Amino acid sequence: MQSVDLKIICDVEVKGMSNVTPGSARLRIESLLDAGSFVEIGSLITARNTDFNMTEKKAPSDGVITGYGVIDGSLVYVYSQDASVLSGTIGEMHAKKIVNLYHMAMKTGAPVIGLLDCAGLRLEEATDALNAFGEIYMAQSMASGVIPQLSAVFGSCGGGMALFPALTDFTFMENTKAALFVNSPNALAGNIDSECDTAGAKFQSEETGLIDFQGSEEEILRNIRLLISYLPSNYEDDEVSELSADDLNRKCKDIENNIGDTAVLLSQISDDASFIEIKKDYGKDMVTAFIKLDGITVGAVANRSEIYDPEGNLSETLETVLSVRGAGKAAEFVKFCDAFSIPLLTITNVTGYKASRCSEKNIARACAALAHAFADATTPKVNVITGKAYGSAYLTMNSKPLGADMVFAWPEAEIGMMDAHMAAKIMYQNSDADTINKEAEEYAALQNHVVSAAKRGYVDTIIEPEDTRKYLIGAFEMLYTKREYRPDKKHSTV
């Protein structure tokens, strides 16, 4: 990394921001981008407001550094809020710099990365500051689905600022000093640090699902660079690809042992175990991740019933069901992948919907959103059924009727309405146990067996688990030229 002139950067005294290091806004950019690649835009812009003695306050760059550079040779636009300048508050010219950056990114088709550290609206500018917020919301909304948007929260991000990360595709959050909230935690009854810090990274990651990654500042900057390597520059960009030395026909030995923890399974089939999980702390029964297959970025959605720690010990057991959080998380991910033409892979092992009073409030809406996301997606879609695939929950997971281009299944997979024994009990409810067991065996053979589904065309090929990687690469290569269209309409309403 190039040396930085700290004398210039630190010209402004830090006031009221104990967690802010002078110059950190610029240093974050320098640490994020390839060495020496950053080109600043609008460095001489400052606040125009003269009310409340604003002319006497120094506001270099109006509290935000904007410009462009490269990450591993790929063009990106970056803005970094400087909390040492007017506490990083957003006023007219601050917003104008960010909006201008978005306009340039849209013209050139490159991602925008926002490094957030801001005390909110600039009170001295009142309605001008409110209008400034709105202009940024508009720019982010127009860029959605056109260029990837990433944000990282390093300090305060409250009130209307909380919409900034929510309007981006992926959000990172520093896990010790950063605060993300709409309403101040102090304004919420019973919200104390020892019980629940609603502004902290843990809450925003585990409970709201707003945060995709949490960690130290260094980890965040490193993971932003990693994520950028998986993403296309814009919606018209060809798929992200790179040369891979991993054998296309590599057998994945003992992959069936990882049927529960699909995060491990996905890394096993990916090129050189390349894998980056999205929202791993939220809706843990569903894995959403990017992997590489023959150098191509693939978005993966997978049911998960077990979680193993890095040492290989079972740390958590989950139900094989669709939950509100898991379905919602997957639906968002599918929509992103489709917007940027990233091929989709699903790993299906699900027996139904989560059954609880709390879940019942939103499960229908959440699973409908997931079904719609898969049905509406025109990107290549491949499904691998590894275990049980029961009922409409199975349909929701990228099934043939929802438009899956190829469906593979492992030999021990079960596909049907419900568990065979339960079906027999319903059909022969007045029979004895022996009769029910006998009929359950027959039902399993006639209706739930994977061969029965294959005979009806719901499964294209039954494959050995160890050959999964080979078949997936072949399927996505075959689907490379896929073209599919949907009815001409303004947009869907789901």
Walk me through the structure.
With 494 residues, the protein is α/β, with parallel strands linked by helices. It has two domains: 6-230, Alpha-Beta Complex (2-enoyl-CoA Hydratase, Chain A, domain 1), CATH 3.90.226; 255-410 and 463-481, 2-enoyl-CoA Hydratase, Chain A, domain 1 (Alpha-Beta Complex), CATH 3.90.226. It has helices spanning 6-9, 24-32, 92-108, 126-143, 163-166, 201-208, 217-230, 262-269, 324-339, 357-360, 363-376, 391-396, 420-427, 433-448, 450-455, 468-478; strands at 39-41, 64-71, 74-81, 112-116, 149-153, 156-158, 170-174, 179-181, 213-215, 275-278, 286-293, 296-303, 306-308, 314-317, 321-322, 344-350, 352-353, 381-390, 406-409, 414-416, 461-462. The strands form five sheets. Strands 10, 11, 12, 16, 18, 19, 20 and 21 form an eight-stranded mixed sheet that branches. It has a seven-stranded mixed sheet with strand order 1-2-3-4-5-7-9, sandwiched between helices. The chain is globular and about 85 Å long. The protein starts with 5 loop residues before the first helix and ends in a 16-residue tail after the last helix. Residues 1-22 have low confidence and may be disordered.
